[in-house]
Write a structure and sequence with these properties.
This protein is α/β, with parallel strands linked by helices and 240 residues long. Helix content is 30%, strand content 32%.
Length: 240
Amino acid sequence: MDAPVIDLLQLYPRDMNIYGDWGNVLVLRKRLALRGYDVRLHEYNPGDTFPGQVDLIVGGGGQDSGQNKIQADLLAQGGRLRDLADDGLPMLAVCGLYQLFGHRFTTHTGEVITGIGLLDVETVGGPTRLIGNTVLDSDEFGTIIGYENHSGLTTLGAEVQPFGRVTKGDGNNGTDGTEGARYRNVIATYLHGSLLPKNPAVADFLIRHAAERRYGSFNDVPLDIPHESEARTDAAARPR
């Protein structure tokens, strides 16, 4: 019998893939393979044809110049992405794409980069960068560990929940104690590092919902990965 297939889409890797965000794709592909799934990896950049079958979407961060390069294409795909999110498709949007999944990003020079409104968030460019190792507390995922590096200050609206509550670091804006945003099966965050190698519970959330949405079930085989917990403990103990 052929292995079940998961179609994994990396969104705008040419322009939105900095600070190790490619590692998130590698983790998803490996954890799916260990559970018996074949992974078809797709890339989508401006001007490409959007794949007909997508089960899981991952997008990374980029500088303001990268956001400007993808803005028109992202707006053109906004309706499709909103519909997929509403239908429960899991997504991970990091940093720059987190900002553009919101209503708008106003840069520190006053330029407005319009987002697709998939997330009820707004971002303005701040005067300084928020940089360093970050730890969050989450009711669903436990302790979340990552590294933030952003100057955008994001405010959450009523239609989203935070990804986690900051116990170390600045998070969305350095003032309200929130980090990232959640809408249905979409996770948006400023955490690089890559995020998923340090947070297997988050990775498994994404692949579980991808498999269940496509096949109605998930082959939840326990994974024995040496040193996984030790790596998390070491990362969480690093100074800010």
